[in-house]
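Q: My labmate handed me this sequence with no annotations at all. I'd like to see what the chain might look like in three dimensions before we decide whether it's worth expressing. Could you predict it?
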Amino acid sequence: MNDSSTRDAILVAATDLFARQGVEATSIKAIGATAGVNPALIYYYFADKATLYDAVLDRMVRALPGRLADALEKVESPSEGLALVVRLQAEAFLAEPLLPRLLARELADHEASHATPLLREHAARLIGAMTRLITAGQASGEIRSDLDPTMLAISILSQVNWFCIAAPAIQTILSRPGVSHAPEAVRAFADHVVAFSSNGFMPTRGGG
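A: Here is what I predict for the chain of 208 residues:
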């Protein structure tokens, strides 16, 4: 392997292990074995395990919020934009199925301390873009005026994320192994979120 492919192999292996068993339970030796490289070689690319973990978070977290925020700038209506965010989020989680679990571990194990700079820079931009879109929808009468724009944005973003994180429990409860990991299941849930959320934020007749 060349330098680039070796580094990528290390990142892929570390992502898998960090997401499945946590940072503390993952050793450099295990990452090397999973990546198929000498563990000592990892230190050529990363100063220590903490630096490697930061690189994993950067690789997994950085691009998604920006892509979603960019997409919102091209929509013609708030409801169209919110639906687009949900469906793009679902596709991103299908492309990177370990991302929801990695984020959940970061929140549970570290209270987002490692991801804080990334969240401030990128996720905050997405929440801001969604909030502005919702506020515009409230001004035009497309979205209920009694809803808090930030809370609505967080609610919409949380649903597909939770579905993917809770996949093992969902498939056990439903007695349908693998159903929540299947692309058609994730996309169907995204469609449900769009319909459910739209019915919740649309103004009722005679009300605001």
